[in-house]
Amino acid sequence: MLENHARIMKFFSTADEVVGRKKLQKMIYILKKCDIPFEEKYEFHFYGPYSEELTLRVEELCNLGFISEVKEDKSNYYQYRYRVTEQGEEFLNHSQVELPPLEGMINNMKGKSSRFLELVSTMLYFDDLSKQEVEEKVQTVKKTQNYQETEIVEAWDFIDNLRRQTLL
Amino acid sequence: MAYKDEQLSEEKVFKDPVHRYIHVKDQVIWDLIGTREFQRLRRIKQLGTSFLTFHGAEHSRFNHSLGVYEIVRRILFNFENRPNWNNDERLLCLCAALLHDLGHGPFSHSFEKVFKLDHEDFTKKIVLGDTEINKILRRVGKGFAQDVADVINKTYENKLVVSLISSQIDADRMDYLQRDAYFTGVSYGHFDMERILRVMRPMEDQVVIKQTGMHAVEDYIMSRYQMYWQVYFHPVTRSAEVILSKILHRAKYLYEQNYRFKQKPTHFLSFFAENVDLEEYLRLDESIVLYYFQAWLEEDDTVLRDLCERFINRRLFKYIEFNPNQQMTEWMELYKLFQAIDIDPEYYLVVDSSSDLPYDFYRPGEEEERLPIHLLQPKKDELKELSRQSDIVEAISGKKRTDHKLYFPQDVLEQLPADRPEKARIFEILFG
């Protein structure tokens, strides 16, 4: 029952805590691109790949009391923190959903900024293009973010590292 | 004259129940409509299984695609000679509007979930692949097919163009709300589109609405809210969708178990293998799917046969409201009880969730991704976000509503012998 909910719960449980909605969106997308079987559908939005289904699913999990969402006032914006609740852990104990080991990848991503993950997920979104085309596309669709050459190089390294971890 | 500028000697019109007439003057648009890939949309219903709830809902994605094209055509007519609008983008907008749903397959929602497909990938493949559509787009100009794909994919550089067919107030939504309301026969879904089109203005990277049009937009937002809960998430439609998904799951499972189908599922083989090429994808439409469901009524597998019979003859699952948080233990008990009475809970005990966010606003710095609707103020070209101006919209802004239901075959449960101890317990859990 609710297998897709359970997969997202497994992610939260492994991550222990996720800070930021944008970061959450990009982390799941990146894992999805690493063939982790999340089924939330993504489309390209203002900050890169974004899944409305994921937004709604997380909201559902909060409403069900399986995840706690803490809204923090950061003076000029709000930030959200997510954690699995006791009820959520109980739900997971009943669930038979299995996922490949995620801990390494999640920890790598947690240490990065949402801006960086936005860049990585945008590059992965265009993974059917050549390296040069991907970079051109990033500069076109992410003009306002003004990504620097060093960030793009770091993002390629990050992607290569992810691919090694998932043996892609 | 360049192909992109060619006009038909006489304007063609399609009679349309929603927009009265759909006008075509561009040769390119006329040629695109005539392609096999676009004509295929006649055989894909816009609302999937909703026809089992609302018998009028037999309209196709062909109707809707023409409707979106017509709305964009009217918007662009109003944009001509306005600041911030470059009419060189006109044909691109019209093509993207016409072709935006090209990759939808039969009963898209279920097919995408079961076979892990994405209709947007197929739209892109049709636009860029070896197709009649692509040949026409390439005749328009170098890179034009890619531009059309980028607009549909929302990765086109000019966000104003993208926002015409993909934003919180776009031609796609304006058409499907009205069209679906018309064909389902419900009284929601109506709003004053003509007024909205008159007050739309192109800005740098988005379409904005003149402040004076706020009330028409309020009506549009409310009609969307109503349509989602009254039509799109109707529990009977969801029941049909649950059964449809389970048929596809069962057929795939049987195929993987080397089950010998009496009617070999030739058209589904690449779907089962999750390796669908474009030609096979285009070949599978809803008539073919329904043909197989009919044929599978003769199969030996009782689950497949029963599920097909339910879908074809509208013997749908019943449902109860279900709260996964409070009723988790009950659900687990039901699962075991179903197994004990030889009803496979994987196919016959299904929790289905529906959620919608009617309107979301953007708060600077917050990690939201939807561009809100902006109202253009009478003085100084100032923009104000809709929910800050409208009390009605504010009341539903950012509010998500979720609904969980548990579906099961009540008819089978009722036929269980009265003395089976499981029966009483199942009914007790389900109906209290």
UniProtKB/TrEMBL annotation, chain A:
Protein name: YwgA family protein
Originating species: Sediminibacillus halophilus
Automatic annotation (TrEMBL), chain B:
A Pfam family the protein falls into: HD_assoc_2
Endpoints of the signal sequence: none
Source species, domain of life: Bacteria
Domain HD per the UniProt entry, residue ranges: 61-177
InterPro entries: dGTPase-like, HD/PDEase_dom, HD_assoc_2, HD_domain
PROSITE patterns listed in its UniProt record: HD
An example Gene Ontology biological process: dGTP catabolic process
UniProt GO MF annotations: dGTPase activity
Entry-linked PANTHER family: DEOXYNUCLEOSIDE TRIPHOSPHATE TRIPHOSPHOHYDROLASE, DEOXYNUCLEOSIDE TRIPHOSPHATE TRIPHOSPHOHYDROLASE SAMHD1
Name recorded for this polypeptide: HD domain-containing protein
Lineage start: Bacteria, Bacillati, Bacillota, Bacilli, Bacillales
